[in-house]
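Re-run with default settings, no changes from the original entry. Doing this only to confirm the output is reproducible before filing.
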Amino acid sequence: MYAISYFKIKKNMNITPAEFQYLKETLSKDLIAMLMERRTMSMEDAFRCYYGSETFKNINDPETGLYFQSPGYVFSYLEEELINQTGNN
């Protein structure tokens, strides 16, 4: 028998590490696609931008709950971060 560990998330929500990983990967895929579409980035640039961002770091922190939000909502944070870094829209 395998032991299953759970993350304790805000509001007493239990989620397995596998579920957490799946949610992060799904959100990451969507955010990278949004960078490519909305900011006309190449796939390589979108990957570099996303994986180097504070938003990505926050998604990987289960305490933030950001991994559980919609892609559009999280993208607004990512876009704000990019605007603040570059001073461009």
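The chain has a mean pLDDT of 85. The two ends are 53 Å apart (CA to CA).
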